[in-house]
Give the backbone structure.
Amino acid sequence: MFVENLKETIQLGSKFALGLNPKSVILLQGPIGAGKTSFVQGIADGLCIKEEITSPTFALSHHYNSGTIPLIHMDLYRIENSLMAKEIFISEEEEALQNDSVMVIEWPELIKPILNNFWEIEISYATNLGRNYKICEPKNSLTFE
């Protein structure tokens, strides 16, 4: 799916959020600057979250609880060790399960092998300045448990 600009990215994320359930896991993959956090802003909009959505690159995760479904936004870009990435994920997963949150994970490569059911979204640069989104649905279910 081709997206031309920031406005369309947020609209796509908002529309995508309408199909999410509590405990859904979304893996966002794409190069730096591709629009991963902008897409999460759209998801938050679709979940009626009122807080400002910012990149959790340095904090590793941000939690947003004001919407119809809570959102945990993770970014594993700075994590180089798969064991550390898994420990961080398991800690956040525990909270997501307790709060029926949606989890969105940027740079998920180190934890992808331990996940069973997730949405996978690949974002790439288009030749004409926009972005291409490839959205793959979970094969078994929409939640992790």
In short: Helices lie at 6-17, 36-46, 82-99. The chain has one domain: 2-136. Residues 82-99 form the longest helix (18 residues). The chain has a mean pLDDT of 92.
